[in-house]
Amino acid sequence: MEAILFEYAWVLVVLIVLEGLLAADNAVVMAVMVKHLPKAQQQKALLYGLVGAFIFRFAALFLITTLVNFWQIQAIGAAYLLFMSIKHIYDSRKASQNPEEIEEPKKKSGFWVTVMKVELADIAFAVDSILAAVAIAVTLPHIGDFDIGGINAGQFGVMFLGGIIGVIMMRFAARWFVRVLDKFPSLETAAFLIVGWVGVKLAVLTLAHEKLGVIPHEFPHSTLWKVTFWIVLVGIALGGYLVGVKNQKKNTK
């Protein structure tokens, strides 16, 4: 029994690390989504998003065999993130080229609409992370003789616990990113580039869905793609930081 518990503990650590890695890029998206709200509402939006994510992650473990059939979930998430990124970069470029044109401030999404967008983004992110968790957890030996949602109760418990810890990590990471964007406004373009790159990630997952088969089903989980994704993401973040430091020095002169 001790060996089984150790195996469960090890898989839980692996799931927490996996969720932590996924939380990094997801948190940037969350931070960008709530950034336009007043500071007090930013924290509330992230908190309500956290509560919704708890509920969804729990329900998704029951429904994962159904959810995986709907490639449209990740396709919608990919399209929205790419649209948000491209639109921001286009608007910023237009404003820098025509500074004399003063446009009326555009109406931003309200509090509850923003919370809904955060929830929908989490749904798009969650499908892939839950699939990865299932793939790891199903290798564990069964504990007990009953199932939850078609999954052994022990396996279900470790997946749920790993997912919940990951959601908490994402929420606190998002709050930190909000503070960074407030402190260094010049990093906003880099943040939106990351949002677009995460949209590409979801697009790759969609195209690799077994019902579409545009690219090989295994490609999104291959070492080549994972290394490429993180190299580009870190490169965008580093480039944004260097540009931000350069702009800050210019402004202080």
UniProtKB/TrEMBL annotation:
The keyword Membrane appears for this protein: yes
Signal peptide: none
Domain of life: Bacteria
One Pfam family per UniProt: TerC
Keyword field: Membrane, Transmembrane, Transmembrane helix
Entry's localization field: Membrane
Membrane topology: Multi-pass membrane protein
Annotated TM spans: 12-33, 45-64, 70-90, 111-138, 158-178, 190-207, 227-245
Stored SUPFAM superfamilies: MFS general substrate transporter
Keyword Methyltransferase: no
Family per record: Belongs to the TerC family.
PANTHER family in the cross-refs: MEMBRANE BOUND PREDICTED REDOX MODULATOR, SLL1022 PROTEIN
UniProt protein name: TerC family protein
Protein species of origin: Lysinibacillus pakistanensis
